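Subject: for your reference before the review

Hello V.,

The reviewers asked for a structural picture of the protein, and I figured it would be easier to keep everything in one thread rather than splitting it across files. Below is the amino acid sequence we used in the manuscript, unchanged from the supplementary table.
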Amino acid sequence: MTTGSRTSRNPIPREGNIMRTNNHDHRRPGMAQRLGAALGALGRHLVAIDATLWAKAMIKADAVILDTETTDLRNAGIIEIALISARTGERLYESLVDPGDKPINPDAAKVHGITPEVVTGAPLWSAVLPEVLKATEGRLVLAYNKKFDIGAIRDDCARYELDPQHLGDDANWGCLMLRLSDFLRITASRKLNGGHRAVGDAQAARKVLLTIARKIKPAERNA
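And here is what came back from the structure prediction:
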């Protein structure tokens, strides 16, 4: 047994009952937050780039841009539909539609201007669907609000016991509103400035596509 004091090679200072160490935390205050913010910004930038590449692919593939006007927002019938070329803006098909037993909500009519008198003599959805299927066969379909338009088509097909075929398949559709949100790195949703008639809204949706593809500047989208 040895006597005398023993020295510690690395003495650890103590203050009260709290032990303090000499090793320093090399992480500067706020560095984690700054790194997280930088990674978040990079992620959003990559999402925006992906949206642009997607939009360019849709234009190259000449997808069809589709828009519908309906009797109401919910439990509605289609009263107008328009389809245009994503590449050229050419009108591929446009028609008013007789909603049958679905009355047009006066509030909806104030928005799109389509009254019962306007659709008098228009074909029923059962006559319009074959033309829409023909115009979209083998092509991707884009809508500004995909959920709304695909829902309207499915509902009317169910009402008339019709098969929506490829238009009923979610995989054949693209949503421009969500892609615009990715491009602008914001949260959906944004209103479409198209005058609330089917062909005008379809043309406005095409401007959204061109904006995402960087073919036109965002300021030109509402021109």
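For the response letter, the relevant points are probably these. Residues 98 and 122 are 5 Å apart (CA to CA). The chain has one domain: 62-222.

Happy to draft the paragraph if you're swamped.

O.
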